[in-house]
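Q: Predict the bound structure with cytidine-5'-triphosphate.
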Amino acid sequence: MLQGKHILLIISGGIAAFKALDLIRRLRERGVRVTPVMTAAAHEFVTPLSVSALCGTKVFTELFDLTSEAEMGHIELSRAADLVVVAPATANLMAKMAIGQADDLATTLLLATDKPVLIAPAMNVRMWDHPATQRNLATLRGDGILICGPNDGDMACGEFGPGRMAEPLEIVAAIDAAFGGGPLQGKHVLVTSGPTHEPIDPVRYIANRSSGAQGTAVARALLNLGARVTFVTGPATAPPPAGANVIAVETARQMRDAVHGALPADAAVFAAAVADWHVVGASDQKIKKTKGGLPTLQFGENPDILAEISQMGAGRPGLVVGFAAETEDVIAHATAKRARKRCDWIVANDVSPASGIMGGTENAVTVISDSGAETWPRMAKDAVARQLADRIAAALEPT
Ligand code: CTP
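A: Predicted complex:
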């Protein structure tokens, strides 16, 4: 799908700009022609000489460069490629794109192009989480801009969280998907993620420590392979992946309704940490302290969404994947859970406090299927997600 394509690659000025060199190499290996544009700030991080050498062509930088304009005008440059890719896309560049500012060559091209645009954001976690950036992201998404990443992880600035640019191969996969070439193109995958909150009264609830990081990473990896993803999420701390159809819920019962409403799907991945119980007769009013008395909570069982979908007969997704959060005898409990719920695969992980997995950045999983239990080495949640998405793609028949 990528062979013979032409990409206009805009490199903006962030520390992740060095990864653009590897991205160029990976694209060139796949027969892609890359025309590079660098912002002035990008020159602080990579040299035009390296970019030019890897692309095998000159680097465009200046808006009012007479030689460049004589060879190819900036309007022509903005339209010559099949796809415009911005990697890295800094918070500043995203802000300019969102308001349509055109004060240098890169932003002018982005405003003038009639081709699809894909951005790979990269910035400090606080900059990414800032309401201004999230507002800009929503605007860009609404404008039809394709978004790849960012990933969670350790950042060059020493902080941790979302903001790290997607890896070059992930961007290549997203480019492939933009051209309609991902292995999951035409497939609909449903992903549940995050915790659920079960209200006690209007201000209190029962919850768990899930951040939603693993489910979000799985959804992102599936999107990168071209899937259409419905992402049903409880109140997670991880922001939902760009490009997914996000359905936000609070309770397990709402999650179940949303899951049923999202079917049919070719595959479903249940990464949510669903509360097993809800409080029966949750109060409409805040429960007041009464002297010497303690409230008594009565629990009711929540629907087991994974078991319901695994056993639904007609309309069951072709592949149903569950997660098993265990604190002891991980493989034995997860194997029994798979048999009990009747899902196809179960991804078992050790969530005992000593493992640091719940709410952490890494995961150590064992995938249990008909062919037995396969333990994967401990790796970043993003890497687990990519491996799982590849496996899902291999398991689903091509359309
Ligand atoms: N799950 C679900 N609905 C529930 C409970 C769990 O869909 N009400 C799904 C989870 O998303 C996960 C799998 O079932 O994919 C296993 O979740 P886990 O919490 O490990 O298992 P439980 O069924 O809750 O069993 P237990 O708490 O006894 O370990």
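A: The chain is about 35% helix and 25% strand.
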